[in-house]
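Risk register update: the risk of archive-format incompatibility is retired. Evidence:
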Amino acid sequence: MRLGLATGFFGDAHPQVPIKLIQHAEAAGFDSVWTAETYGCDAMTPLAFIGAQTRRIRLGTNIAQLAARSPANLAMCAQTIDAMAGEGRMILGIGVSGPQIVEGWYGQPWGKPNYRLRDTVAIVKKILRREGPVSHEGREISLPYKGPGSSGLGKPLKSILHGNANIPVMLGTGTPTNIRMTAEIADGWLAGSKWVPGRDAHFRAIVEEGLAKRADGKKLKDFPIIGIAAVHLSNDVKGALAKLKPHIALYVGGMGAKNMNFHKDNMVNRGFGDAANRIQELFLAGRKDEATDAVPDEFVDQGALVGPPERLRERYKVWADTGLTQLLVTNVNEEAVDVLAKAAA
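Archived output:
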């Protein structure tokens, strides 16, 4: 199991890319670094900045939001960064986000994300391969566009840039239907916080169902599955778990609509339904400290690497034994990077 560094979506008012930490992770042997985006800083610009100040580490988006760009622009961004940073470094991770952001920030209909993801992956791959001018008749997206307002003058085009045709296109998906689709059409699954020790067999079965539909015959051993875990290096395990709880309470309690919150659903599916309902109830009532206190230690520990160096090494092995291809870590400092790099060596 390789290691990646997840930088998140730079939620501060004035974003600062942790370039020294990224360079340290690269020197320690980390395989990749990943950016994200929400309604603020985008994912592509920091990735280009990172690529210019590193040499080897692979560059991924986890995730680039589907509503933020057309499929053509996703392909353009990915192949441009790959060409400028050094061919073979870019990984294009795409996901949907939620309806509050899709409709509230990007001004697009929620629609049918499954169809839109299928169309996007197909178009991006056609653009990257440059086998001819790109046309696509999709359920949600078609090229050339022929819908309402069309001039009728659009024609299939072929990318001017002779980019890397093999840039991996991965999907961050969460429902069983979309996970199966990911395994069927994508180059890997960004499993996020869904793949944790104890839940791996459940999701492995879903991935296998999707892989069985592939046209290229790719098997599980050739299909990357990438998880994510928060890290806190400390001799005080209970105190370290407590430091990770406010972030969980925010996402379970307040991210998304009350009746459509994927982070809450994930907590429920991991067997903490009563806690999830209580956290959301408290958070939406403005009782955020109580919502934080309601996050179970067991839930935090299951999805994290917390404790002194020896416990981090033990937890790393537990995660590696689940069959993950790569584990992205968040909330790390240089000391934690070194401990994990030694565990992975």
